[in-house]
Design a protein that fits this description.
Elements (H helix, E strand, L loop, with lengths): L1 H26 L13 H30 L9 H12 L6 H35 L2 H4 L8 H6 L12 E13 L4 E13 L6 E16 L5 E8 L5 E4 L3 E13 L3 H24 L11 H28 L5 H20 L5 H20 L13
Antiparallel strand pairs: 1-2, 1-6, 2-3, 3-4, 3-5
Length: 383
Amino acid sequence: MEINIALNALIAVMLAIFPGFLFRKCYYSGEFTKQFNQSRDIDKILWNIFFSGFGILSTLLLVVSFKRITGLEILKSLNYENINKIIIPISKNDLPAAATIENTYIDILTIVSLIYIFSIFFGLMCHWIVRVFRLDVRFSLFRFKNYWFYYIHGGSILYNNKSNRKHEFTIADVLCNTGIETVLYKGIVSQYTISKEGNNLENLFLTEARALIKVKDDNGQTIEVRERTIPGAAFCIPNNTIVNLNFFYVYKKERPQAFDQFYLYSLNIFFILAFTSSIILLFFDLSRFNIIGFWGKTNYLILSLVFLTNLRLLLSNFVKKSVLTIDVVSPILLIFASLSFFASLIDLISIWYAVGISMILFGIIGFFRRNKPTVKVENDAPL
């Protein structure tokens, strides 16, 4: 009886809690890691259950869609009958039959692993979407609790940045009380730490740090202000010594147009998903496509990478408005070369035809490269 209760508890944690835990852990990554624990325990459990349900549902939909699109037989043992044979005994605090476990344990481990993998993937993807599309800057609903991130990185929540310039780095003027004197430090903010509980600033790290020191006469009057360079890679200033703090934001080139930016981000997402799908296909029987054995699957993976990489390069040039340049011609010819080898891999043409086609295409690429016009490059104006 105790074993059955422990088994039920383990299953509940594995499926109802842990996928959501992985999702939240990946979502609150980078400079927002400490927000992962900044909630009440009951809130953490509820959010874990919610995101676990999201991860399970998404995984099942992806598996079903994958089976229907490709026609591949995967997770065959997880049919309605076997699932009932597992769930019904567990609901009655009994163990499923040994034969049922033997027939399904591999597929069960596979589907649980997929749930965990997709929970991690969705957590990272949601974090990436929020940050790249600056949803946390535009909408308070998506804003992280680490408000120092937005102050230090010049988010437009502080002011209206109409020029849409991209933040390069932040210069800080830090007035500190050392206990003996008051010193003004100046430098580029390289890092900072915040408290675990309240997101309060703990330490500020400056590179290329300098100190402005007042020189006084015998009467205590300031007669000169000297600047002293502080040697070292990073200068740490504890928060308890900071009297006043001022940030100055330095920007570089303007951001690309909204449509071009969305197009490039969508293209990157497509490439990641397409190449990930190509890798997943390696774990299934591809003999129907004449892809057999280790070397067959290795060739398939290499050709997939070459094809998708050059397709991404070709499509990304639409933003640059390039026409019949080496940046456009080269990916097109490499795409055709990879397709010719793929056609030979599935026995549509002979390997020697693929080699001949590829040699001709490589010759054309070499011709374009030899005749590529030189472009004079000028340095950007200083900031």
